[in-house]
Amino acid sequence: MQFNVAQQLKGPIGSVRQVKVDDAVPASQGSGTERVVGTLTFLRTDRSILVTGHMETETSAICSRCLTEYPQAAGFDIEEEFFPSVDIMTGAPLPPPEEGSFTIDEHHILDMQEAARQYTLLSFPMKPLCKSDCRGLCARCGANLNESPCSCAEPRDARWAPLKKLLARTQSRN
């Protein structure tokens, strides 16, 4: 997801360029790649290129209940400013922008890869679930309850004995 913005940096303030994105980038979590699609608008400002748009991707996630890996869709709106590192006319180095800002390299290449990775991570749920009714893992034996019922014996707590007797009497009357 690299774009040459040399012509736009030479153009007048307010010049707009729209680009369609359909690219494979390194995965935001783990190894491999993930496909990122969307539409971006590049707007020339007095000091930078403002990138806005909507992007979508699908990456692998691990369910917080059953610990299985599953595909997680992520969509996000992006609005970031990319600052040039050298003057487009003279080639002289420009002072660095504030820390944490995105930059355009000395060859006037705007690289969206790190911004897309950060926005993908921010759009992830805090506790990802493979499905809304995921049953998780057995607390005693660790069996995945989505695949089969647990074979653990029910824990016996003597404090529940009077209630079990009451339940048994109620069920025998019915």
In terms of structural class, how would the helical and strand content be classed?
alpha+beta
Q: How many separate structural domains?
A: 2
Helix fraction by DSSP (H/I, runs of at least 4): 10-25%
| Most strands sheet | 5 strands, mixed
Order of helices and strands: EHEEEEEEHH
Q: What kind of assembly state do the chains in view correspond to? A: single chain
The span between the termini is 69 Å
Description:
- It is a single chain.
- This protein is an alpha+beta fold and 174 residues long.
- It folds into two domains: 2-123, no CATH class; 137-174, no CATH class.
- It has helices spanning 6-10, 113-123, 161-173; strands spanning 2-4, 16-26, 33-44, 49-62, 69-84, 102-104, 109-111.
- The longest helix has 13 residues, at 161-173.
- The protein is rod-shaped and about 90 Å long.
